[in-house]
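ARCHIVE CARD
Drawer: 12
Card no.: 0347
Subject: one protein chain, sequence and derived structure
Cross-reference: see card 0346
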Amino acid sequence: MSDTLDASALLAYLHGEAGAERVAEAIAEGAIISSANLAEVLTKRADAGDHPAAVAARLVENGLLGGALAVVDLNFDDAVEIAKLRGSIRSVGLSLGDPGVPGAGEALRGPCADGGRGVGQARHRSEGGDHPLGH
């Protein structure tokens, strides 16, 4: 079964933060990310001064998006199910994009992981290698 990444997990991977090695393993095993969580990643990069289209293009060029990491679109039913989860997850401090993780994971019958709780359990910081953002 594929892991479903949330925005914080992909950001940890892209920035070489704690949990990046585990995210890399999940991606190598065929992880997915919802389009809503990818939008959150691109928004965070835009907040840091990057152009979202340029970031997306670099991630496609290096084989991450559309290659190693599949992007899953959310539909009407997914939106309703995600909205139902909001009340039950608010108390654990998840971001607005985080409910897309269980929604996409359930749709594909795979486990869900996020940078701070599931995937973010790795103890070592990513070192060396090509940076996915091309920095």
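Annotation on reverse: The chain has six helices and four strands. The helical segments are 7-15, 20-28, 35-47, 52-61, 76-89, 100-108.
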